[in-house]
Specification:
The complex is a heterodimer of chains A (443) and B (231). Chain A has 16 helices and 19 strands. With 443 residues, chain A is an alpha/beta fold. In chain A, the strands form 4 sheets. A 7-stranded mixed beta sheet of chain A has the order 9-8-11-10-12-13-14, sandwiched between helices. The two termini of chain B are 19 Å apart. Chain B is globular and about 50 Å long. In chain B, the strands form 2 sheets. In chain B, strands 5, 6, 7, 8, 9 and 10 form a 6-stranded antiparallel beta sheet that branches. A 4-stranded antiparallel beta sheet of chain B has the order 1-4-2-3, with helices on one face. Classes of the chains: A alpha/beta (443), B alpha+beta (231).
Chain lengths: 443, 231
């Protein structure tokens, strides 16, 4: 029996938050240690394409931009207000923004429902103000929004790498860590949204929005609990893109911690497990899996079957890979005789021709290519484990059949090759277990 | 709506066990042959009619956990023990000041693999179905699977396959495999019952005995959402 639920925020309403033409930073600061300074500076440094207005009654200018005493004093149209002022002032500020034609707000400030009954009242007032003004509000108690495709970095740290994964997080740090990793690997994100207390915009609105966002291939979510279950389920049902969720608060004490963090109802973990399976959500058990699964689902095609060939220069890595493959429903199938025969002719004698196929420590990129060519048509995927400094690895990997790259123990050569791979859009995984676990989510 | 449900709603109480049986049977779920009786003589006649061995269970709107209340006697093989059982369990109930609606005589089902099929309310997601193997598997290992209703056939099959104890249903150590088709069918039926009767808040079919062919729901508890009785 579907229960009625609030409708999704419209694309237009959310675009004011993710692709505004102009921004006002209410509570912008001249003090470098304050968030009001860092966010304002990040907006400028990321290269926001429109006007950014600092609002602070005490400062004449910040970073060379003329400062206004309040939103009414800004001469131009403002789409988005980023609010970093004490909680008791926020509801009124939103109202003033609304009457000034501002379409959306990101409330960074804490001090709302996460702090107790008084904060809860202020959060209700915030919601009322947003509804009266027909504004979409993210937060409060959040780390903002970063859309490197726009670019709009109304958040911290300053990261600008563009990529295909939308990161939606109830924890600012957890989301920022994901974005930081992606940045370091030259992969990037499509948008980062820190949800905070979800007073207005919630995860269901964002699943609904990013399901239609052309820059997003995969949606990665860190959550402590869903806000409105039927609305969440409807968003998931409609979403055609892969959805990876890390749901925290699995143990009784973890649930308690979730409740005090963002006042989330963490719910029974077994029920979440069932719901995720029922609706084909990829469940991540930790942050690394959230990152790895999103990476695999964004850059690699789905598997047509479970048959996996493991090619390696490292025996140990291949055993680790085999174990995870067997535990996750992949099939490390035996190498067909004619393929084995052919490979024995072309490979050095000391190579162990089987599955896993061990090229041993003096493997060259060329040998990997020979194996892929001979075995391609017999397997649904080939995992290539480069377990030594093997130059030119990124030259020999193709896409048919699916080739999963794991690179470890290669020091400086590995770090260079990884970036070369990533620039080609081929993801590299840092350990056999992480790579194969991610691969199993393509089944 | 099933007749049994209508009566319970009227009286503002949960379903009595014979009513739960009636509800399940009206959806084609197999329950053991049974009869509600209100005297030791009727009990004896019912047992003869149903065939030995039989089980006697107290029927009272005040008793939710029958075994704990001394309201269940299993594996009775003759008239004398049935009559004695009737006296014993009704006496227990009266001592506990529970209103007695009668005693349920039902055929003792042959042993099979014990499973539990349930419907509970999740605070966030609403009605959810639960499946697990009976005994220590649910209580100690919490080896259960959940899905939201309505279940699709693949959901029901997945619920059965994903519990850790699944190999026990496939037959181990010479045991015959359990009838997974019948079990899948049961899950779908319970989902349908819950879907079509939103008055139901909880169901607990525990245990269900699964055989090589078919299954039997030997104990059923059906709770309704709390509301004031209508006069």
């Amino acid at each position: 029996m579907p229960s009625p639920f609030p409708s999704f925020k419209s694309k237009e309403a959310l675009q004011a938050l993710f692709r505004p033409s102009s921004v006002a930073v209410i509570g912008a600061s001249t003090a470098p240690e304050k968030l009001g300074y860092q966010i304002f500076k990040n907006l400028l440094d990321a290269g926001f394409p429109g006007k950014v207005h600092p609002i602070n009654p005490k400062a004449p200018e910040i970073l060379g931009c003329p400062c206004y005493s309040n939103i009414d004093a800004v001469p131009d149209q403002v789409d988005l207000a980023v609010i970093i002022i004490p909680a008791p002032l926020v509801a009124d500020t939103i109202r003033r923004c609304g009457s000034r034609g501002v379409k959306g707000a990101i409330v960074i400030s804490g001090g709302f429902s996460e702090t107790g009954p008084e904060g809860e009242v202020m959060q209700e007032q915030l919601v009322e103000a947003a509804q009266e003004s027909k504004m979409a509000v993210i937060g409060p108690n959040c780390q903002g929004v970063n859309n490197p495709h726009h670019p709009l970095c109304a958040s911290w740290p300053l990261l600008t790498r563009r990529g295909p994964v939308a990161v939606i997080s109830q924890s600012g740090t957890v989301g920022a860590a994901l974005m930081d990793w992606a940045s370091q690997e030259e992969l990037g994100v499509s948008t980062f949204v820190s949800l905070g207390n979800r007073a207005d915009v919630d995860e269901a609105d964002l699943i609904h929005y990013f399901a239609q966002d052309p820059n997003t291939e995969t949606i990665a979510i860190y959550m402590e609990g869903v806000k409105v279950a039927p609305k969440f389920l409807e968003a998931v049902r409609q979403c055609q893109k892969p959805l990876v969720i890390l749901k925290a608060g699995r143990t009784p004490k973890g649930r308690k911690a979730a409740e005090s963090h963002t006042r989330s109802l963490a719910g029974r973990d077994e029920v979440y497990e069932g719901v995720f399976r029922q609706f084909s959500v990829h469940r991540a058990n930790d942050l690394e899996q959230l990152y790895d699964f999103s990476k695999a689902l964004s850059y690699l095609p789905r598997l047509k079957g479970p048959r996996l060939l493991i090619v390696t220069s490292s025996g140990g890595s291949a055993i680790l890979a085999t174990d995870v493959a067997e535990m996750t429903g992949l099939d490390v199938a035996s190498l067909p005789d004619q393929v084995a025969q052919r490979l024995r002719e072309v490979l050095p004698k000391h190579c162990i021709v089987g599955n896993p196929l061990d090229l041993t420590g003096d493997a060259t990129a060329q040998m990997y290519r020979q194996v892929v060519e001979a075995a391609a048509s017999h397997f649904d995927a080939i995992a290539l484990i480069f377990g030594d400094p093997i130059p030119g690895a990124s030259e020999v990997v193709g896409r048919d059949p699916l080739q999963l790259v794991i690179y470890l123990g290669g020091a400086e050569v590995e770090r260079q090759e990884r970036l070369l791979f990533h620039r080609k859009g081929i993801p590299v995984f840092p350990t056999p277990e992480r790579g194969i676990q991610a691969l199993s989510h393509l089944l | 709506m099933a007749l049994a449900l209508g009566r319970a709603i009227q009286e503002g109480r949960n379903l009595l066990e014979p009513e739960a049986y009636e509800l399940l049977a009206s959806y084609g779920v197999s329950v053991p042959p049974h009869k509600l009786v209100s005297s030791a003589e009727e009990a004896e006649a019912a047992a003869t009619e149903i065939g030995y061995p039989v089980v006697t269970k107290i029927v009272s709107p005040d008793i939710l956990h029958k075994t704990e209340a001394g309201g269940v006697l299993l594996n009775l093989n003759d008239a004398a023990s049935v009559k004695a059982a009737y006296g014993q369990i009704t006496e227990h109930a009266r001592q506990g000041k529970a209103a007695v609606r009668g005693v349920l005589i039902s055929r003792m089902a042959p042993p099979g693999t014990e499973v539990i099929v349930g419907l509970t309310q999740d605070l966030q997601f609403g009605p959810v179905m639960m499946f697990g193997l009976g005994g220590i598997f649910v209580e100690v290992y919490q080896d259960v699977s959940f899905r939201l209703i309505p279940l699709a056939e693949r959901d029901a099959a997945a619920m059965i396959h994903e519990i850790k104890a699944f190999p026990l249903l496939q037959g181990v150590r010479g045991k015959k495999p359990a009838d997974l088709k019948a079990l899948t069918h049961l899950l779908l039926k319970v989902s349908q019952i819950a879907q079509e009767n939103p008055e139901i808040s909880e169901m607990d079919l525990n245990p269900v005995l699964v055989y090589e062919k078919g299954l039997s729901v030997v104990d059923a508890r059906v709770l309704l959402h709390q509301r004031a009785p209508t006069a």
